[in-house]
Design brief:
Blueprint lengths: L16 E2 L2 E2 L8 H19 L8 H16 L3 H13 L9 H4 L7 H7 L2 H9 L11 H7 L20 H16 L10 H10 L7 H9 L4 H5 L11
Antiparallel strand pairs: 1-2
Bound molecules: fe (ii) ion (FE2) (2 copies).
One fe (ii) ion binds next to α1 and α3.
């Protein structure tokens, strides 16, 4: 795993852990809960990516870059790990979008766009039973808001500026960068430098200018991240 400064599912240990399970010293919301939640987030991200083999590392990369952006923005390690987890699961709602729409090679009809635009809300609904994913500035809020635009032209709520949860403004930049650099059936992925130029060009329209500054501070890490192997952070059996 590359440069996981935001912490990872395999990097944190519960101080109260004992053979057979957690002692409960963490109160259910400490390292044990975070570690389990992170593992769950990685699994759910892989579940979404498994629907399209070309995107086998998309959720992993969005998580890595979102976590790095959170640290560059000055968030704490715990806050950054929650943003990283939201990056893993940002598109979990797509499991509720029909394959025929999700993989349609041509332009979508207005009715099909309605289905696609439901995926942030559906994702938040899927995740809300998990306690550590709920609440203000939570993973659920980030997933719900990851397609909002800084200028208010996004969805599902049309939020603008600081009304968009900060974590969602961070994940939005990471998601766009990854999408631009990935190959699609109808186009080749952009180079890192081309994608960085596109992000800069959308400063203040799609993206929070402060987050774009954070992104430029971590740009030197991006080529290595994109080249990072299979993306699997644990050995397969
Ligand atoms: Fe992770
Ligand atoms: Fe999405």
């Amino acid at each position: 795993m590359l440069l996981l400064t935001s912490g990872g599912a395999h990097s944190e240990k519960c101080s109260g852990a004992e053979p057979g399970g957690c002692s409960g010293k963490c109160g259910g919301l400490g390292a044990c809960a975070m570690n389990t939640a992170h593992q769950l987030a990685e699994s759910l991200g892989r579940a979404v990516d498994a629907r399209d083999r070309r995107l086998s590392r998309h959720s992993e990369l969005v998580a890595e870059i979102s976590g790095l952006l959170a640290r560059a923005h000055g968030l704490t390690a715990r806050q950054s790990e929650l943003v990283h987890m939201a990056g893993h699961m940002h598109d979990i709602g797509k499991i509720g979008v029909p394959d025929a729409v999700l993989h349609k090679p041509g332009p979508l009809s207005p009715e099909e766009w309605v289905l696609v635009r439901e995926h942030p809300r559906l994702g938040a609904e899927i995740l809300c039973p998990v306690r550590v994913f709920r609440g203000p500035h939570s993973v659920c809020e980030i997933v719900l808001s990851h397609h909002e635009r800084f200028d208010g032209g996004g969805y599902p709520r049309g939020l603008a500026g600081q009304d968009i949860p900060l974590g969602a403004r961070l994940v939005s930049v990471a998601d766009a960068f990854c999408a631009m650099t990935e190959d699609r059936p109808y186009r080749q992925g952009m180079s890192v430098e081309e994608a960085v130029r596109e992000i800069k060009a959308s400063d203040g329209s799609m993206f929070d200018p402060c987050v774009v500054k954070d992104f430029l501070r971590i740009r030197h890490l991006l080529p290595e991240l994109l080249q990072g192997g299979s993306g699997l952070s644990c050995p397969l059996p």
